[in-house]
Structures are given as structure tokens and as C-alpha cells.
Amino acid sequence: MNLHEYQAKQLFERYELPVKNGVVCQSVEEVDLVLAQLSGDKWAAKCQVHAGGRGKAGGVKLVQNVEEARAFAEKWLGQRLVTFQTDKLGQPVNQIYFEETCDIDKEFYLSAVVDRALSKSGVYCFLCWWNGY
């Protein structure tokens, strides 16, 4: 199952897990409308592709105002994002997820993998305090 970040966060919300407010857009024209639904004056703009390494590849940016958000959307929507987890053609960026910001006390990487071939229990969890490195 491949989920975009915004889809995973919708599932978290459904089961009452805390997440920051965010809205997805599919066009530059939607950016103003999307940001009007969020609070604050800066947001995290995140390309939605099925690959890790988006930040290092420029697909995640802290935007300081609506103009920067629009510019980010103009740059990425309809383009392909190449990360260390994609092939050389990358993945198409059809959606940008804008999310409210918050102060970060600690950051870590958490992953759950289902692999029925390796074990009957099937679920492995990985936790890393260094952003997955």
C-alpha cells in the first residue's frame, strides 16, 4: 500500500492521533484558498510523492508567505522529483501538502514494515533518532 503523507495523516486523525493541520492542493490557483484554511504566517510545503528523501531533494520547504508558497507550487507541480529512493526519472509531483508549522523539541524517524515472508508476526518497527540515518 502506498500512501502519501497527507493520506497517512488523515488516517491518524481518523483514529484521534494528533497531527498538525494541513491541506493538499493540486494547482497553483488553489494555493491562496488552501493557505486561508491554515493558521500562522509560514507553512511547510511538501511535494507528495511515494519516496523518501524529499527534503534533501528540495521537495520540502518552509515557506514564509503566500508568495513563496505560490512559487514553490509553480516550481514543482507537474514536474518530477528525483530522490535517493527513486530512479533517475523521479516521481511526478501532482500534489503539494501545506502544513502548519510548530516548534520542534525532538525529531525522529519511525517506520513500520509488513513482511509476511520473513515472519509470521509480519510487522517490524524501526525507530531512529537521527532522521533515519
UniProtKB/TrEMBL annotation:
One of its GO terms (biological process) is succinyl-CoA metabolic process. Keywords: Ligase. Its EC number is 6.2.1.5. It comes from the Bacteria. The keyword Ligase applies. One of its GO terms (cellular component) is cytosol. Pfam families: ATP-grasp_2 (PF08442). This is Succinyl-CoA synthetase subunit beta. InterPro entries: ATP-grasp_succ-CoA_synth-type, ATP_grasp_subdomain_1. Residues 2-120 form the ATP-grasp fold succinyl-CoA synthetase-type domain. GO terms for molecular function: ATP binding; succinate-CoA ligase (ADP-forming) activity.
